[in-house]
């Protein structure tokens, strides 16, 4: 709480409101008592200017293009850390010691396999099933195999979090790969004990039953970087969903399963799939990107330049800069000459110099380039958002933990301004 007070004048009465200041200087007016004292609520459709919680996990300054996990800059983590080390940092708040990291990795490795019942469940989905639907359903089902880790009794579930977190971080990757194989009609393979996290995922995705899939270390590193860059992003749509579900006391498995559903939408995690589909459409139509840009600028056209714009970043998304450099490296390494990349470059240049995009501060976001890397390493388009979900898992776990550890945590329950009919009498069928 800060010393500063805000004064709200309504009619001829003044109301004093407390203010809060975060560790990075962000300021907020505390409106928690407003309805009781004035009868008013605050109105903020889409929560664009609402602080829904205090959090210690991630800091973003969208104007300056800053992103930090637990105080560490995304640039430094991308250069020096790995996805698994960063997952530990997000969940426990500190970088692990060598011993802690070794044990965390070992527990993730131990949990790589899934129960036979889940394998059968995955094979029962129709081939038309989107892997995000399969992932959400099977993450919730996974909890049924660990009833002691997800009881909906907060103190108990919190005490089991170390185990639940490693089960989820490890198995989300196995479930994702098996969802892909089932869709392709391919038999499942087993994880390889000697492989690191990403190499194992690529092995589970692409190996043949009696032939290992050889993974180039740079390809595994590129995937690791994509996961690290997606590991958390403070109060975004899916994380807020996880926190919302957790606030009602739901266990970690149920909460992250809801997070996957929220992530699926094309305005959120689904954007990486939508970017590639947009580039393919532009390529197929023989457009160099300029017609598409013009359509995206027309109000009511329903067209948006996917991979551009962000609710929080009004500057370059720092993750986009890192991933663009990695994208160049991977394409060179794999000797990929993708015409879609040339279109992406042209779109980026044109949009960055176009007054429409400049005035609205629309810059490329992380998804503009991640799809191109994923495509180059052979990941099918429908799996792009699934990769995002694998990356976001540690972030969701950290936020679930923050809710569960908060002694005064209330159920999340926004209010509304009702604009529907006022009271009216029921109309009998014959009079309608
Ligand atoms: N292409 C064209 N115009 C756009 C775009 C875009 N990608 N994004 C925003 N605008 C325009 C809007 O039409 C609006 O114009 P107006 O002021 O003339 O009405 C203005 O910019 C502000 O847009 P909003 O929709 O109000 O911004 P909001 O913060 O609600 O949306 C969002 C952010 C959803 C990310 C939006 O920019 C978008 O749809 N981008 C494309 C999808 C995408 O890439 N999503 C991934 C986000 S990153 C992530 O989730 C990992």
Structure summary:
The protein is built from 19 helices and six strands.
Attribute tags:
single chain, 432 residues, mainly alpha, Rubrerythrin, domain 2, Citrate Synthase, domain 1, 2 domains, three-stranded antiparallel sheet, 19 helices, 6 strands, globular, binds acetyl coenzyme *A
Q: What does this protein structure show overall?
A:
By secondary structure, the protein is mainly α. It folds into 2 domains: 5-66, Rubrerythrin, domain 2; 72-414, Citrate Synthase, domain 1. Helices cover 51% and strands 6% of the residues. It has helices spanning 34-38, 74-80, 83-92, 98-110, 116-123, 131-144, 154-159, 161-184, 197-206, 217-229, 237-247, 252-263, 271-284, 290-297, 318-333, 339-352, 355-359, 367-376, 384-405, and strands spanning 5-10, 13-21, 27-29, 58-61, 66-69, 72-73. The chain has a 3-stranded antiparallel β-sheet with strand order 1-2-3. Helix 6 (131-144) packs across helix 8 (161-184), helix 11 (237-247) runs antiparallel to helix 12 and helix 13 crosses helix 16. It is globular, with a radius of gyration of 23 Å. The site of acetyl coenzyme *A has 18 residues, from loops. Acetyl coenzyme *A binds at residues 267-269, 271, 296, 304-311, 360, 362, 365-367.
What is the strand and helix layout of this fold?
Layout: E1 5-10, E2 13-21, E3 27-29, H1 34-38, E4 58-61, E5 66-69, E6 72-73, H2 74-80, H3 83-92, H4 98-110, H5 116-123, H6 131-144, H7 154-159, H8 161-184, H9 197-206, H10 217-229, H11 237-247, H12 252-263, H13 271-284, H14 290-297, H15 318-333, H16 339-352, H17 355-359, H18 367-376, H19 384-405
Antiparallel strand pairs: 1-2, 2-3, 4-5, 5-6
Helix pairs in contact: 3-10, 3-19, 4-8, 6-8, 6-12, 8-9, 8-19, 9-10, 10-15, 10-19, 11-12, 11-19, 12-19, 13-16, 13-18, 15-18
The structure holds acetyl coenzyme *A (ACO).
